[in-house]
Write a structure and sequence with these properties.
- The chain is mainly α.
- It folds into two domains: 7-42, no CATH class; 50-189, no CATH class.
- It contains nine helices and no strands.
- The chain has helices spanning 7-10, 15-23, 25-28, 31-42, 48-76, 81-86, 90-113, 119-139, 151-189.
- Helix 7 packs antiparallel against helix 8 (119-139) and helix 7 (90-113) packs parallel to helix 9.
- The two termini are 28 Å apart.
C-alpha cells in the first residue's frame, strides 16, 4: 500500500512559525486553525532514518534510469573488444544484466512505496523488461551498430528476469514471515 503524505505532514509548522501562526489575528479564533495546530504540535521531529528514506526516494528513480541507460549503451557498443578479453559467456552477461535490471526496478518500488512489487507490478515489470530485451536485440541489428542480434540472448535476458522475480519473491516472503513472527512475539509479551 503506497504511503502518501499530506502537505501538513511534509512541511510541519513548528517552533517560531507555529507561534507566529497562532498570533495572527485572522486565524486565532478559528476552530479549524486550533485543530490544525494541535495536529502540528503532536507531530514528532523527523528522525535521521526518515531523512535517509527521503534521500533514497530522491535517488531511486535517477539510479534506475542510469542503470537502464548503461545497459542500453553497453549492449550497443560496436564489437566491444573488452568482452573478448574477459572470456565470459555472452549469455551469462545478458542473464546478469537483465537480472540486475529487474532487481533495480523492484528495489525502486520497494524504496518509493515501502513494499516489494505486487503480483500485478511484477507482471508489468517482467513484461517491460522482456519487451525491452526484444527491442535491444532488434536494434543491435542496425548496420551502424555492427552487432549481431541473437534470439538466445533474448532468452538469456528473460531467464535473468525470471530468476530475479524468484529472488524478489523469496525476499518478500521472508520479510513477511519475520514481521509476522515479531508481531506474534510482541502480542505474547504484552
Amino acid at each position: 500500500m503506497p504511503h502518501f503524505q499530506t502537505r501538513q505532514q511534509q512541511y510541519p509548522i513548528t517552533g517560531r512559525r507555529q507561534t507566529l501562526f497562532r498570533k495572527m489575528s485572522c486565524f486565532s479564533n478559528s476552530p479549524r486553525t486550533e485543530s490544525a495546530m494541535s495536529d502540528f504540535s503532536e507531530q514528532p521531529e523527523p528522525t535521521t532514518q526518515q531523512g535517509a528514506v527521503s534521500v533514497l526516494n530522491r535517488v531511486a528513480t535517477p539510479a534506475t534510469a542510469c542503470y537502464w541507460l548503461a545497459l542500453y549503451v553497453g549492449t550497443h557498443i560496436p564489437n566491444p573488444k573488452v568482452l573478448d578479453a574477459l572470456h565470459v559467456s555472452d549469455k551469462l552477461l545478458h542473464f546478469s544484466a537483465y537480472f540486475g535490471l529487474f532487481l533495480v526496478l523492484a528495489l525502486r518500488i520497494r524504496i518509493i512505496h515501502a513494499a516489494w512489487p505486487t503480483m500485478k507490478q511484477t507482471i508489468l515489470l517482467a513484461t517491460m523488461a522482456s519487451l525491452y530485451s526484444a527491442f535491444d536485440e532488434i536494434t543491435q541489428g542496425i548496420p551502424l551498430i555492427n552487432r549481431h542480434p541473437d534470439v538466445m540472448d533474448a532468452v538469456a535476458d528473460c531467464a535473468g528476469v525470471a530468476v530475479a522475480i524468484l529472488v524478489v519473491g523469496i525476499v518478500d516472503w521472508s520479510e513477511k514471515r519475520i514481521r509476522a513472527a515479531s508481531s506474534v512475539e510482541d502480542n505474547t509479551d504484552s
